User: Fold DNA (cytosine-5-)-methyltransferase from Scleropages formosus.
Amino acid sequence: GFSWWPGVVVTWRATGRRRATHGMRWLRWFGDGKFSEVRRLVSLLSLTESYVRVCAAQVAGARAGRAFPPGEQGAGEDPTKPMLEWAKGGFLPEGSEGLRPVATSAGQMLPYNVYLEISYMYDDDGYQSYCTVCCGGREVLLCGNTNCCRCFCIDCLDVLVGAGVSASARALDPWHCYVCQPSQSSAALRCRPDWSQKLQEFFASDHDPDFEPPMTYPAVPAEQRKPIRVLSLFDGIATGYLVLKDLGFKVDQYIASEICEDSISVGVVRHEGKIQYVHDVRNITRKNIEEWGPFDLVIGGSPCNDLSIVNPARKGLYEGTGRLFFEFYRLLSVARPKPGDQRPFFWLFENVVAMGVNDKRDISRFLECNPVMIDAIEVSAAHRARYFWGNLPGMNRPLCASGMDKLQLQDCLEHGRVAKFGKVRTITTRSNSIKQGKDQHFPVIMNGKEDVLWCTEMERIFGFPVHYTDVSNMGRGARQRLLGRSWSVPVIRHLFAPLKDYFACE
Assistant:
């Protein structure tokens, strides 16, 4: 278990980062081992100055225009009783505050950040990791409805619906949650009619002033969800398909454009021929899209060789492989739903962060949105900063590691091998990208000698199953090139998770 305390103040050297800004301190959280730069550290004795035992119901009442004077409850009576009785009678907070989490009395929006981080976190079984309502819960009940992946903790049921409700729900097999059957709850735990739209607005609260906000789609009822249809351009080693299946999606069709024979071999072997390959993206026509479609999701990441400023011979966005971005834009435009078609349609484009300012600006201008920068260092043992453009719900929510993510290099190594570093730099197609620091050290010690990363270890770093790229007698160099061009599995899982509200799952 962890310490009773949530974290400890550490020196900047322990973080491996820069010195803390003036007036701030570095904290290491015991729960996940991450570091945060915080300010306003005060003595523990000052806790009582800002501590309020119960404030959630009071804030909810204030938002709905209902106040609770201190004398409303009798002596010795639970002060929350009149609040809960009023709440169970039915209320609906209105306005922009309607779906905003309650702040602490000190004004810190910790519940807001927690909700952003873990509301779309899923376990291996495909269900939410935490309660839909409170993003917590020591014991949760899983919805038995097909395609629904929600869970509710027993505390929320007993407090918000009624005492003993959780015990009754346990006896039901299957039990359907309050999102699938909102009519079964007549107390405080009820879905508002526009909950889905409000939820999307909640995650997209920081619209870029340079572009129109993307269209948001209400969640599809569980019984109406259909298997997803995907068009993947520059597919690589089928990371998109792997993540969709890991999340439990039913994939009706997965069309992949890829010209690398080694990448195609990995996709064919590992996914048993369920991916339809169509080779060169430049040969795909409007007629092809109409025959294969309609598509629900279009994804891709064009080659970054001629965009990356690391390449001194780069040709930019308008020459060489940089021009392939416009093939993505062309096919995305063709695949979009026709005017008047309101079905959910999503897309995602990825590329390197280290690109020229003008190239980034032009890509954003064509795609009509600015990118989100996500670094896989938060959910893996290696740096991998990438730009992601798209309209997936909650793209800008914080990246939060799950229990299945391997965050330290040592966690990715085979038995008998010792990591010299906690994390490694970005692994690319070049063999020397494995070496670390200015002195070019190998990252592993084995039998007292430095050693390179093995292929299975690199696969773990990227989040792939062990031996995922071990097909067709490929050597170490070829397998590293495949991985160096691929996406980080935990990052794509983070981006795809909100789509479970729209498409059928197993």
Notes: The chain has 17 helices and 15 strands.
